[in-house]
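Here is one chain, start to finish.
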Amino acid sequence: MNDKVDYYGGVQVNKYTIQPGNLDPGNGNSILPVDLAQENSYVFSGYGNLNWLLGERFKFSAGLRFNHFVFVGPYTQAFFDDITGEIVGSTFFEKGAGVKTYNNLEPRLGLNFKIGEVTSLKASYARLNQYLQNVYNSTTPLPTSRWKTSDPNIVPQSSDAYGFGIYTGVADNTIELGLEGYYRTSDNNLTYKPGANFFLQEYLERDIVQAEGKAYGVELSFRKPKGKFNGWFNYTWSRSLLKSENEKLADRINNNDWFASDFDRPHVFNGTVNFEGDPYNTWSFNFTAQTGRPYTVANSVFKIEDLDVPIFLERNNAGLRPYHRLDFSWKVSYGKNPNRKWKGDWIFTIYNVYGRKNPYNVYYTQRQGAEDGNIFLNSPPGSYELSVLNSPLLALTYNFVFD
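Its structure:
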């Protein structure tokens, strides 16, 4: 290692333990108890990275990581009929027995080239593998999700990400500007099948598919790190899409066309402004605004025993109202008191200053008479918007640091 080259390496071991859940009906006679088996897995990794400074303007970085994933028992592996989906057999693995392994390499590259004194170009590439995923279902009033590790039926999610950016300083380098774009492709993204109910399901693989994904976007950033007035702003335009590739018609999502993922929010703006009046007082304003999260609108309604039931044929075919919120904080700092061995500060915070009722989800349920909007006979189910925080929220915090 010298002034132009440095490197590092290491090993890492991660253990994943998932408790999928259980259901205790208590004294109920019509509900069967459920106790899903715990899932256990390990990831053994070795990695290395090299940074190389080529001249005064060019910096090169390269790294490689090797992952060895092991899914272990106790575990019951079920085998299903390809047509009916019914269980045709199973194999039980004892505690600690190896069930399934995956080996993957994760290379990464980074380039940084300086143009003049205040401008630089950056480019990057990284391949990642994810062995623990969260599958969402947002058609319920409170969106549900469930963690799932890779196993013999669910292969790890993999992605390739590319990035390119330009950064510069203006006004004697007191203001930093950046423009960065990215493109990412991914495989084996977990999502649920049409009409699936994966809540407390023993064999989750029957209710999910692994979809192809892509995400891309561009971010514009502005940063002023110094001065009594300082802060930063950034605006991002991006898309996040998924696409199933199922031959069976019943398992296709949006007929195997691209559709918005649960994280698709094309427009996102974040900003922070700080005013440091004196060494003891700092006032901060934080504002965020973004496109509403995608959700699924019912395509039709059918009647079952005098109940109107919504039919969902498409996934994430609409969006919630835009989300925006303003937060304020006042930080009062105290210098070190000779009689104390620490220094501290008080922070008074107001979240959601103007009481925005940001929607958390939209769901459907049967209307309950005229007072609930059912002014016409045979009205369809009503759609209702759920908000979690609809008023300002105050907080007072004291932080201290020992010298």
